[in-house]
Amino acid sequence: MLLDNSNSRIYDPGACTSQSFHMNEKVKKVGFIGLGRMGKPMAINILEAGFDLTVYDAREEPMRELAKLGAKVAQSSREATREVEVVALAVVDDAQVEDVLIGDRAVLEGLARGAIVVIHSTVLPETVKKVAEYAEAKGVQVIDAPVSGGEAGARERSLCYMVGGEPNVLERCREVFATSAAEIFHMGALGSGAAAKMIVQVVTCINMLAAHEAEMLAEKSDLDISVVQKVLHASSGQSFVTDNWINRFKLTQDPIEIRRRRTEVFQKSLAPAIEMARQLGLTLDGTVLAERLLPQIMGIKDS
């Protein structure tokens, strides 16, 4: 059953697999699974843009928040995908993507032919391709569209989308993506968006290591870190990370548990990048070092 918050009625969409959608149809109904620090603001943006949105998360709190804003709330991930043209996933990792789509919850079983699955999660390209093989048999399209810009970027609608998949599938989803995007890049074939996201995570976390060590040097040299940041911004040391190190990345004023969870998110985002490099016969020594030092970098463990 779904709860339609606009008029407080409960209805059962029933079996919808006989329904089908065409690629030239304008997307009206969207399902969104995963309302974490990225998923929730992205879902809110989709809702505020006027799409008919159904959401699901394992936690009740974000679903209640979305319901108050006018979203329909499903009681399972599979219910969130019935009658929708596009279903977006913003879950934690490869295992969760597979579990939701082809595992015990088997969301693909409830999707109509012609529907599109969008994977926003940071996952391996192989995971995207594996899911797409299952989806093809159901007449469902898959596109990988990981994002960069963080929670603040989602709230500010300034995310960078890296998309892999067929151009016509991207075009059908573009208006949905535009609700949170400043830039949308088509990277190429299926899985290429996921690969691009791996590269972004590698560069970001190595820059975090550089910013951390710059901060340590500044403190020991009795330099004002805010002035050092201005110097870095105006010099060859400039990066998005150094520009926003204190007020967006490290955030030492946050409680230790929040900082610990933030550190775990960065570590989990590097794991598939390191694995992808291994599969390609590469060794990313700097990335491995940054992953190991992230607790010190984020200030939850002494250097």
Structural features, described:
It is a single chain. The longest helix has 29 residues, at 192-220. With 303 residues, the protein is α/β, with parallel strands linked by helices. It contains twelve helices and eleven strands. An eight-stranded mixed sheet has the order 2-1-5-4-3-6-7-8, sandwiched between helices. The chain has a three-stranded mixed sheet with strand order 9-10-11. It has two domains: 2-189, NAD(P)-binding Rossmann-like Domain (Rossmann fold); 196-297, N-(1-d-carboxylethyl)-l-norvaline Dehydrogenase, domain 2 (Orthogonal Bundle), CATH 1.10.1040.10. The chain is globular and about 65 Å long. α2 (60-69) links the parallel β4 (52-56) and β5 (72-74). α11 packs antiparallel against α12 (285-297).
- Domain count: the total is 2
CATH architecture of the largest domain: 3-Layer(aba) Sandwich
**H and E string:** EEEHEHEEHEHEEHEHEHHHHHH
> What is the CATH first-level class name of the largest domain?
Alpha Beta
Helix-strand makeup class: alpha/beta
Radius of gyration: 20 Å
Strand content: 15-25%
Report how far apart the termini are.
52 Å
